[in-house]
Amino acid sequence: MAVQRITSEISGFDKLVGGGFPKGSISLISGTPGTGKSIFCLQVAYFNALQGKKALYVDFEETEEDINGQMEIFGWDLKKAGKNLEIYSDHVDDADLLLKLQRKIKENKWDIIVIDSLASLLPTPAASNKKYSLHELLDTVIPVPLDLESVGRLRVKAILSILKQSGATCFVTSERIEGLPGYSRDTISEFLCDAVILTYYYGIGAVDFRSMRIIKFRRSNHEKDYILFNITSKGIDLIEDPLKNKR
Amino acid sequence: MIGKKMSIFDKLAAIKEVRFEDGNITLSGQRVLIIPQEFAFAVTDLMVKDKELTGTIYEVVRNKLSVGWAEYIRRRYKFGDNPRNFVKWLIEVGAFVGWGRHELIKFDSEKLEGILRTYDAPMGILYENKLDHPVDHIWRGLTSGCATAAFQEDMDWIEIKCIAKGDPYCEFLFKPRKSLTPEEITKYKEQLPPL
User: Predicted ipTM?
Assistant: First the structure.
């Protein structure tokens, strides 16, 4: 049976992944800051919403106003998407975050859900006094006391499980720190997600270069090479490689 | 690449500024060749045996090879307003392509003068402690050409310390050609192009 897919609405991208993102899959978009992870996800959500799909964009770092401002830069009008695109922002410090998120996801039959970002859910030493809900703590009641990292991983695992159960095609971002192991900050989501896309940035002189690389993409024959792209006034724009298959 | 900092090679590969394709390698959009270091050894050996060739070969590498390449790079990456960053980047690339590890010891941005130290220079290592004069003339030609493009000023690089003559590392004094003192011109006559 043919795999049903959600198109990325990023020109040229879908043909690199067998036609789009398999319905119900979870894709991890991970990269260092400024590499275009959030724009990628927002672009997928917005243009799918314009096509009539129902999209939920969850952001733990920015307010709805910030996101709207970001969209305006690219000429994406949130009003045009109407009720098809809902932006939900919440504080990571909220002890009931998981329950609230679960409720929000169950509120609707979403086609697309974006979580931006998983990394912001991970406890940091500075946030070691953070309160966890009973719901989360019960999940960690095992004989050995868990360190913050493990609690964070359990949190990520729980969120990915909620996403999987939703049946929506999901995108999660993670901010990667160069030099640290793993494709994501939590080092677990790359194993749990169906697809992993890494994004890169390197500036030389006054020229910015961005690329992405598809590390895995279940149920699809995908491009293995680096894919160059620009962030233009209209969003992510893949650069046609003039040398590809020419020699 | 995951779990360690990206090297300049990793970064260039990720943005396809270095490419390995069938029968063709490009670095920053220009075709390059990987050749055994023996090629550079053979040219250096010519200069060791006939010191009078040194200035000429230095000048050919500088003018015919390096200046044009570096000028292209300067334009490609729009380094125009930032020569210091350009030089730093070129030094990084110099290490990436195998000419040793480099450290900018001194730099006067007003006078465009400075000292670059190179550890593990391939030509110097070949003649380690065997000579009474420096041998890194191809590297000097490359760097002086790059600096000429970076500063838009005729630059010269003079090797003042060399592993070949027993120093622990190689060191280069660089400055605009027009700023070389008569004493320096006399002292380093063999390294400079024939008048």
Answer: 0.83
